[in-house]
């Protein structure tokens, strides 16, 4: 096995073995063929891509993967095969099994449901299922931004046209995959979200945006995902790039794209996977041998060749020739090899690979996953408009009236019951897929068009209304006499569209029917019209002539069942449009006022914990300690600090949409935290909370100043300083804050105490200055300390010191004294698991358990605290601060802590601590303003 932190196992010094690990290949067929066996045994192929053409059922998949791994094991592979799969949900699932594998909404459908936490759960469920049959690498999440959303073939496979929303949901999905033990692969770098299909002489789509434009939009989710450190691989696309600074025929063959942009500019150090090199344009232009070498030269670590055995052998030969011709060095080969082996070590082992849990696990988890699927689809159904109040249909239609369903001819989705039936009957299409079709599903498993796709939708509608249903399809031939006759008969017409912007006959047909309905209504007839977009929501999003418009975001059987439930009032559809479409609607709601209620611990604490976790997933990596914060952290129960907390909530589901914590002590009113569910932003929830919080504080008798940010509790000591701070500052300025009156705070840490040592000469400098230190506990001998704190710190910090002194078993205060015994500075020392640590997220173990005890935690989770150093400005202030920090570290080591957290350091005092080996974890700006800023609220 590779020693990942040192030299490679001698086996890998055989270049044939090393080259085999740099290729990912597939084949057509549901059984192991002699060709794929030969590639694994004799060419040491290390990674397999499975597609819908390989997979019949969960049981067959588990058996197939186990056979592949057994072949590799018996052939002497030191590590198992990577087994990769496209399992994006919606319309792109390679593995389908009605009995054991759950269907979930597409990426855009999950965003429509409005919950990153739900997206995380869906991703974790999906990864758990495919892991059970032996898959260890999911080719996802999709991180493309639909810059020109209306016309892009990726469609609902992408989250939206908003880079921050794509980041939020992409990171949530990535975390779900990782927590299920599966490796992740972001795609499709640098972007498949704004492809031009008309400008390439090579018959491949191209990106025409400049690098500056890409950096502001398309690259944002990739950058954010990389910054989390959890992205194992990146799928590099095969599209071209044509702009003033870059002219590239195939992105995955370009060092400008892979080595320069992906690795150097974005800092990615995981596995780069190329697009499939069996692309016809690439084969005819430069050939697979040269293309494979170019991909590795560009910086790719895994080269994909999907299915053609002759071409796969050609690629292997090409890599060997590349080494012989000295185009590829051994160092380059081993750099990729180490990356691939590192990823394998993180997601698989022989024990896991040879014994996938299979059906036994899938049977156990299936009921819970079905319930999650039901919720996800119900939450995703979106009513964009219902101007005539036609929903629910059971209230707007009489039993005896006829309902007409008009559906287009579309290809069944690659993984669906219908596809399965058609494949089993060998009834395959001979029609060649279009350019768009190839790029929608990468030409993997798309099959014949037919009316049957929506047949079950018609049956479900008939069952739901217990009445008559008329159903026929429509084509590019337009409105025919049969359609006219049925429209005259029906009192309600449902038209289904699927990507009408790219299938223009659907748009024309729908507008023709809408005009007919309008004319018939003018004669007094009842002709209700509903349009349902079952793929891209952009079909009629902006067309107000369609008065009732719904979106489902995919046309799987599961999505259609949810649509029927929504149409007939089983639940009120609550989904929303993605990205800028949602925001354009939210502008109309910007003056909405939300009911703000007082926080109730018994009612709201669980909802607040859920809200904190949603924030943690959405903000990673900017606020990593939110995941260790609990609802308990905001309640002080201190008789000297009045606290009042507020929520905006859904009274039906008990979900919290927003939370604000306020405190009042000794004339200072404080907003200690204010946050809103990421899925509910831009609709004035934060404004409503902020206004209520200020009104509460301004009514306090004796208020002298209002403070934004609080050191105790230390969840948000101020406005976080990160790439989002400009937007936050702008928000607070519009809320009446003057941000020039601020002081900067930093949380710092020594990440590994076992290897830390005091800077040379520090102790001698302290001794020469005759500074002495002692440690005190309890309030009996703390008068000098409390006087010092009251003079030099905020009133909430005074209460923090009092609490620390009362916690005699786990906390104490270190005093720095001059030769004449005057106090030069103080700092609180906390041992792991102290009561005080519950109010400081950075001191919580990464397990996320705020209730964990030191005895229940592993050694590397024991965190000591050095809290609130108070050092007045003197000539010796820097030395006093460093001395207090040194004493704190010694105490933390004595308590067997693995790391020290120093929270919080004011203004520029952190610089001397950097010299001692502390790292900055987070920075904040605490703001103070006079109450007169909000005289209109007082």
From TrEMBL:
Database matches in InterPro entries: Acyl_CoA_acyltransferase, GH, Glyco_hydro_3_C_sf, Glyco_hydro_3_N, Glyco_hydro_3_N_sf, NagZ_Beta-hexosaminidase
CDD domains associated with the record: NAT_SF (cd04301)
UniProt KW Glycoprotein keyword: yes
Pfam families the record matches: Glyco_hydro_3 (PF00933)
UniProt keyword list: Glycoprotein, Glycosidase, Hydrolase
One GO MF term: hydrolase activity, hydrolyzing O-glycosyl compounds
All copies of domain Glycoside hydrolase family 3 N-terminal, residue ranges: 16-342
Superkingdom field: Eukaryota
GO term, biological process aspect, one: carbohydrate metabolic process
Family membership noted in the UniProt record: Belongs to the glycosyl hydrolase 3 family.
Protein name according to UniProt: Glycoside hydrolase family 3 protein
Organism from which the protein derives: Echria macrotheca
């Amino acid at each position: 096995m590779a020693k990942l932190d040192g030299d490679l196992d001698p086996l890998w010094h055989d270049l044939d073995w090393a080259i085999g690990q740099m290729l990912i290949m597939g084949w057509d067929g549901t059984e192991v063929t002699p060709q794929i066996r030969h590639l694994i045994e004799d060419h040491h192929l290390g990674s397999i891509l499975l597609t819908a053409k390989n997979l019949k059922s969960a049981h067959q998949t588990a058996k197939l993967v186990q056979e592949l791994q057994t072949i590799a094991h018996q052939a002497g592979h030191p590590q198992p095969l990577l087994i990769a799969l496209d399992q994006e949900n919606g319309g792109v699932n390679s593995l389908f099994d009605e009995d054991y594998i759950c269907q979930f909404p597409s990426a855009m459908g999950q965003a429509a449901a409005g919950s990153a936490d739900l997206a995380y759960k869906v991703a974790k469920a999906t990864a758990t299922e495919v892991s059970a049959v032996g898959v260890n690498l999911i080719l996802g999440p999709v991180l493309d931004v639909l810059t020109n959303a209306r016309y892009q073939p990726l469609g609902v496979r992408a989250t939206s046209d908003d880079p921050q929303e794509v980041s939020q949901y992409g990171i949530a999905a990535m975390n779900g995959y990782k927590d299920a033990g599966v490796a992740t692969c972001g795609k499709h770098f640098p972007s498949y979200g704004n492809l031009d299909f008309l400008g390439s002489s090579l018959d491949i789509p191209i990106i025409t945006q400049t690098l500056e434009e890409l950096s502001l939009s398309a690259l944002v989710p990739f950058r954010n995902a990389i910054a989390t450190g959890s992205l194992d691989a990146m799928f590099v696309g095969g599209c071209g790039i044509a702009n003033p600074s870059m002219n590239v025929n195939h992105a995955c063959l370009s060092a400008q794209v892979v080595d320069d942009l992906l690795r150097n500019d974005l800092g990615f150090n995981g596995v780069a996977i190329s697009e499939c090199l069996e692309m016809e344009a690439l084969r005819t232009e430069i050939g697979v041998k040269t293309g494979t070498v170019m991909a590795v030269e560009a910086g790719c670590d895994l080269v994909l060749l999907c299915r053609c055995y002759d071409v796969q052998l050609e690629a292997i030969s090409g890599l060997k020739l590349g080494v012989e011709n000295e185009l590829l060095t051994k160092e380059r080969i081993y750099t990729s090899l180490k990356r691939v082996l590192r990823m394998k070590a993180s997601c698989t082992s022989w024990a896991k690979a040879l014994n996938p849990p299979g059906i036994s696990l899938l049977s156990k988890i299936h009921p819970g996953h079905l319930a999650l699927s039901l919720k996800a689809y119900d939450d995703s159904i979106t009513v964009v408009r219902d101007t005539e109040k036609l929903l629910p249909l059971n209230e707007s239609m009489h039993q005896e009236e006829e309902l007409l369903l008009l559906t287009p001819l579309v290809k069944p989705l690659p993984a669906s019951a219908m596809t399965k039936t058609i494949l089993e009957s060998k009834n395959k299409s001979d029609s060649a897929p279009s350019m768009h079709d190839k790029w929608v599903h990468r030409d993997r498993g798309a099959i014949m068009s037919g009316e049957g796709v929506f047949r079950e939708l018609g049956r479900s509608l008939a069952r739901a209304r217990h009445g008559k249903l008329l159903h026929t399809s429509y084509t590019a031939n337009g409105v025919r006499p049969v359609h006219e006759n049925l429209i005259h008969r029906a009192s309600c017409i449902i038209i289904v569209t699927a990507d009408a912007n790219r299938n223009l006959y659907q748009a024309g047909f729908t507008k023709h029917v809408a005009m007919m309905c309008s004319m018939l209504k003018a004669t007094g007839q009842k002709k209700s019209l509903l349009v349902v977009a079952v793929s891209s929501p952009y079909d009629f999003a902006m067309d107000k002539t369609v008065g009732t418009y719904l979106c489902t975001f995919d046309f799987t059987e599961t999505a259609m069942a949810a649509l029927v439930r929504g149409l007939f009032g089983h639940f009120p559809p609550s989904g929303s449009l993605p990205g800028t479409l949602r925001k354009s609607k939210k502008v109309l709601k910007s003056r909405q006022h939300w009911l703000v209620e007082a926080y109730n611990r018994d009612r709201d604490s669980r909802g607040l914990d859920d809200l904190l976790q949603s924030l943690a997933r959405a903000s990673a990596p900017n606020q990593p300690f939110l995941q260790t914060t609990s609802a308990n952290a905001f309640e002080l129960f201190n008789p000297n600090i009045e606290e009042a907390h507020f929520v905006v909530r859904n009274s039906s589901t008990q979900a919290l949409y927003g939370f604000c914590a306020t405190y009042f002590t000794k004339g200072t009113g404080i907003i200690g935290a204010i946050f809103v569910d990421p899925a509910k932003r831009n609709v004035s929830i934060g404004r409503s909370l902020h206004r209520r919080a200020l009104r509460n504080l301004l009514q306090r008798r004796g208020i002298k100043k209002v403070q934004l940010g609080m050191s105790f509790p230390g969840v948000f000591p101020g406005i976080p300083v990160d790439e989002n701070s400009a937007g936050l500052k702008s928000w607070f300025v519009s809320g009446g804050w003057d941000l020039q009156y601020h002081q900067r705070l930093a949380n710092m840490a020594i990440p590994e105490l076992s290897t830390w040592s005091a800077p040379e000469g520090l102790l001698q400098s302290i001794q020469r200055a005759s500074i002495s230190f002692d440690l005190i506990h309890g309030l009996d001998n703390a008068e000098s300390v409390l006087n010092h704190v009251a003079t030099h710190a905020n009133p909430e910090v005074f209460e923090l010191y009092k609490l620390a002194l009362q916690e005699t078993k786990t906390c104490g205060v270190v005093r720095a004294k001059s030769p004449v015994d005057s106090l030069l500075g103080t700092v609180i020392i906390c041992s792991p698991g102290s009561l005080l640590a519950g109010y400081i997220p950075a001191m919580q173990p990464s397990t996320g358990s705020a209730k964990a005890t030191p005895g229940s935690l592993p050694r590397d989770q024991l965190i000591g605290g050095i809290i609130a150093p108070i050092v007045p400005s003197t000539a010796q202030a820097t030395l006093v601060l460093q001395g207090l920090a040194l004493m704190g570290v010694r105490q933390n080591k004595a308590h067997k802590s693995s790391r020290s957290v120093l929270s919080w350091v004011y203004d520029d005092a952190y610089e001397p601590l950097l010299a001692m080996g502390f790292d900055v974890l987070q920075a904040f700006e605490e703001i103070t303003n006079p109450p007169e800023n909000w005289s209109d609220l007082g």
